Hints:
By secondary structure, the protein is α/β, with parallel strands linked by helices. The protein contains 14 helices and 15 strands.
Amino acid sequence: MRMAAPQQVHVRAAPLARALRTRVAAAAASASSPERALLGLSEPDLRQLAVDLGQVLSHASLPYPASSIVCPAPYCCTRFLQQSYRGKQLHDLLYKSRAKQIQEFSHVPKVFREALVGAGWKVGRSPVHHAVTASDGTTKILLKLEDNRLIETVGIPVDDDKGPSRLTACVSSQVGCPLRCSFCATGKGGFARNLHAHEIVEQVLAIEETFQHRVTNVVFMGMGEPMLNLKSVLEAHRCLNKELKIGQRMITISTVGVPNTIKKLASHKLQSTLAVSLHAPNQKLRETIVPSAKSYPLEALMDDCKNYFLETGRRVSFEYTLLAGINDAKDHAEELAELLHTCGGGYHVNLIPYNPIQGSEYKRPYRKVVQAFVDALEARKITVSVRQTRGLDANAACGQLRNEFQKNPLLESSPSSEPNLVPA
């Protein structure tokens, strides 16, 4: 007895789009997938996302079980699989057009945009809650995150006769900081959570939009301890380098010192600068300034720095905040030089005259005291520079501006849709 050939089901192309929208939305809702950020993904990641989404789209468009029929238009199941170039379009929209919402993705089909939203994807950009600009051009921005918390990022321009020649973005890696260094405003504001990689990258984009100028340098010296969020910091570093085309040597990662993390960072063999915040030339004094130093002896920290140089070939920079009458004496400079020489020398010291914050007992040293410290280091063959203080009239010290606006999460009703630009 001859078997009847399977009946082909003929479906017009027009209903496919309607079926697609309803079925994708239902599938996304049932999956209960968390919101995810496109910002920070590489082009290969985005191409793969487009392919994966295409598979969902093609199967969701079928109003019947695929295993029981012969599809009259096979292209409807394969066209999305072949369109990984949608990932290239997403890449351009994120990093060239700088689109902030999926609704702005005008170069991709509406069906594709709806599928992205239905699957829980967002661009990953946050609104500017407040911004203040100092007389020297330094601008501090507060971004309001998805959970209503605020983070700071600072844009520091350096101009020449022809206009802006360098723009540095000082980015945060955490909401607040758990280490509570005694002189730092961020620690006084408490700690909430680590930042995701896209929340770090978006700070650089916010600075570029504010200045209408490309960011040339990035320093992880904002709110938080980068080594306590190393995974996200490294992901953001990759994106800044590969997608935003900021050279690795133009990026600095700062740390006050977290056990076992400098060695881990060295294993990645980045060409970026490691900046270690010392603030004192001996363990006893350092513990009074940096409480977390109790769990990370200075000797062990310096050994890790020496090994970092040996493994990466990159010179370590040491940050040293000068606090009047605390760590700024000539004797402290001589002790610091001896400490560096015992660890192999060849290091660079970046002196930072204290930027006063409200309610702190610390004071900024006089200029002649700073110069005497510099002279003592240079006399002992230590390379030293003094960081130019920027943004004194804009509360630009880490954590200052945020503490004026937030100690707890903002209420949903807090107005923040439009940035509040206030000249200092």
